[in-house]
Amino acid sequence: MRLLVVEDNRDILANLADYFALKGYEVDCAQDGLTGLHLAATQHYDLIVLDVMLPGMDGYALCQRLREGERRDTPVIMLTARDALDDRLQGFRTGADDYLTKPFALPELAARIEAVLKRSRGGGRRLLKVGDLAYDLDTLEVARAGQPLKVGPTGLKLLAVLMQKSPAVATREALEAALWGDAPPDSDSLRSHIHNLRQQIDKPFPRPLLHTVPGIGFRLAETTDADK
């Protein structure tokens, strides 16, 4: 599970990141609204923990931008010291799924996250998108430019990691762990599986999405470093 925590208080941010990392979440952090919006819009997260009072762009505006864009279904829990009814209502109007006032107990936030995730899995689609490539985690259907693609079980595991990391690099170690856990094979099996995945998602199309990063791993993105 991937969480994005957007909070400008460094102490609170560090506590949240450490606490949820220990609970097994992969946590990304941002200390201002614009950075938070960029991360939320360009990467996949299962849930966003969002402070209201942020530099650059407040949490209300950030949440509303997400709801109007491609990440409209990503669950959001708002954190704020404002506890007036109008403030809570504004949070819900801009699209928040839950609202927790400061100070709060970390176990309560964890319980709220679990509850919101449970509700979102029951009613919404978990869809990963990179460019014109889409992967529905619930139906295991993959399509590019609206064209259904046949991807096997191993390819689906690789694709999930690559799309969740996108546009960042997925290291060889992370991909091998997704396939084989702590016991990867001695041979270069990963390269073979990456080759097969590339044939499935890139070969029929004019522009590749899957790029090799020599000595590090692979990245799934619309552009390469050379294109920038």
What is the total tally of β strands?
12
End-to-end CA span: 30 Å
CATH superfamily of the largest domain: Response regulator
Q: Point out poorly predicted stretches.
A: none
Summarize the main sheet. Answer: 5 strands, parallel
Please count the helical segments: 8
Query: Mean of residue pLDDT?
Result: 86
The helix-strand sequence is: EHEHEHEHEHEEEEHEHHEE
Rg calc = 19 Å
The CATH topology of the largest domain is Rossmann fold
- Class derived from helix and strand content: alpha/beta
Describe the fold and architecture.
With about 230 residues, the protein is of the alpha/beta class. The protein folds into two domains: about 1-125, 3-Layer(aba) Sandwich (Rossmann fold); about 125-225, Arc Repressor Mutant, subunit A. About 40% of the residues lie in helices and about 20% in strands. The protein has helices spanning about 10-20, 35-40, 60-70, 85-95, 105-125, 155-165, 170-180, 190-200; strands spanning about 1-5, 25-30, 45-50, 75-80, 100, 125-130, 135, 140-145, 145-150, 170, 210-215, 215-220. The strands form three sheets. A five-stranded parallel beta sheet has the order 2-1-3-4-5, with helices on both faces. A four-stranded antiparallel beta sheet has the order 6-7-8-9, covered by helices on one side. Strands 10-12-11 form a three-stranded antiparallel beta sheet. Strand 7 and strand 8 (about 140-145) form a beta hairpin. Helix 6 (about 155-165) runs antiparallel to helix 7 and helix 6 (about 155-165) packs across helix 8. It is elongated. About 30% of the residues are buried. The mean pLDDT is about 85.
